[in-house]
Automatic annotation (TrEMBL):
The keyword Transport applies. The keyword DNA-binding does not apply. It comes from Aminobacter niigataensis. This is Branched-chain amino acid transport system substrate-binding protein. It comes from the Bacteria. Transmembrane segments: none annotated. Keywords: Amino-acid transport, Signal, Transport.
Amino acid sequence: MITEASSIPIGSMVPLSGASAADGREFRNGIILAIEEINAFGGIHGRSLTPFFYDTRNQSADEVTSAARYLINKHSVHAIINGYNIGSQNAEYEPVADSGIIYIHHNTLIQHHDTFMGNPERYFGCFMSDPADYWYGQGFIKFISWLRDSGRWRPESNRLAIISGSRSYSIVTANAMRSSAADFGWSVCFGPEIVRTPTTEWQLAIDRARETRPAILANTHFYASDLAHFQRQFARKPINCLVYLQWGGMHKTFLDIANSSAEGVIIGTVVGLVHDSEGIAFSHRYRARFGPNSTPEVGALSYSSMHHYALAAGIAGGTGAPYEFNQNRKVAQRLKSLIYRSVLGTIHYHPDWQAAVPYPDAISDPSRGMPHLFYQVRDNGTKLGIIAPEPYTTGKFQIPPWYRSTSTPDSGVRPD
């Protein structure tokens, strides 16, 4: 029988205010829904879970580290599970490591690899439940090459223009695109042009990119509302090229603001909701709980990690409180060994990086990697369809309405 006195405290550091507040609200929702489901199943070894949230606001190192310390010292949380906090640069790993609790996040930073591999004994409890930002760039180049080589798209040139936000995450992604482009026959004709973000003013960068006549224009910034303004400004005088955005383009905020101007935009994410029967069922449950304007594609991150943690802790014999290093090490080992098919696809932690392995960027088996998904905006800017990779596709690539060209038949080739 579950009793409140035996409840397991779970912490979550989420940006409920500031530029990422739209995502932060969904990260909170994902934790709430997962904990409600886990408690309905009987909790972990008969103990219910109770969430505690801390607003990380602008996600600075001080704010995120303070959040971790507060949750550990005030609420004695057994784990901290959340979406991203871009800007902390792993500073919060120190109080987490000092207390020995489990920390699962989606910061999407290559720096996680460096920090963890630099001292895996100290950071045994730190897990990044999505692939690093580097894979955005490399995977994007492979994707547009697949579009070209399969005949789905016939670019008028090999020119690639790149615009980046000013966060290190965006810059790493942009630089990975630039460094991989030539290997696949692309020439970077513009950028990466770094625009100070957050911002709603993109016209100057778009006009500068237009002068280079690119075949594809990529923006590696990730705030949903900022990207919506980018797309609206692009649509005023569109360039004859494909447009690629990432992460924030999945958010309902983006679709609501960009509206019909987003039709045909390609959106990539190394961590996204798959549209199979499980993903669709989750979306229905999520919107029933949080309303039709919620975004399950974002809430799915914290939701999946919360369930993964509960499974691992259950197998390990229970959770560990702060400073219960032996039990938390058991939970960490189960997280590493338990390959979990979530609504995001497969969460499989690499034994060296302790981050999710991306498919098909780093592994060819979809049952052992998290899919690097590419969506395209459909239905007059109201819906998303997955166009790569197999077996997750729900539709085929379509030439955007502003593009002065014609599509070619599907060749049946998949990106790998």
